[in-house]
Model the fold of this input.
Amino acid sequence: MTQYIFEFIGTLVLVLLGDGVCANVTLNKSKAQGAGWVVITLAWGLAVMAGVLIAGPVSGAHLNPAVTLGLAIAGIFPWASVTGYVIAQMLGGFAGALLVWVFFRDHYKATEDPAAVLGTFCTTPAIKNHPQNFLCETIATWLLVFLILCLGTSGNAFNVAGVPAGTGAIGSFPVTAVIMALGMSLGGTTGYALNPARDLSPRAAHALIFRRDSLWGYSWVPVAGPIAGAAVAAGCYLLLF
Done:
């Protein structure tokens, strides 16, 4: 249960800071309005770092159902814990999105564009083409999960007092850099969800708060794409390592 609690808190912080930068850059009368894509990608990477620093020592800081499933398929994480982790992550994403709304409530009131408001909660495609959007999310999440798996391989390991440790054991910095790179290089097509807890849960929070279209017809893409990408990444890891 302690691991589930930390997955909840870590994912909450990830979404609070991640969706927070989207709100900060997008909403009317924010002092950061118009700061741009580079600020968003940098802050999302740092949001992941913050969540990992909190949850990493206790739960391993998956903070993402796709990562949890990928690690389980690769044989690195027990299947018995998958359901609890995913539930904790999804609830954390929902709570984090609610806190973003509470924090920026006056700015949401000052923003009339419904698409802009939705974009502070969840992802939407730059060009609506669901098969292509699905492919983009699959490829980007494949790379994310494959890199996370590679961080623990012997070639990326070092020894601490004679005990082998993966590169990720030095902290959250490698994954932070990966998230930033994915956003800057591959994020412009779909907003790089990469994570159902970062997208579906905040989308549900948006629907609850604003009682308007939350683009549910697209909502399957940032869920199915990351799950497919994680499965392929686990298969590549097992094949190569």
Q: What stands out?
A: Residues 116 and 139 are 26 Å apart (CA to CA). The chain has a mean pLDDT of 92.
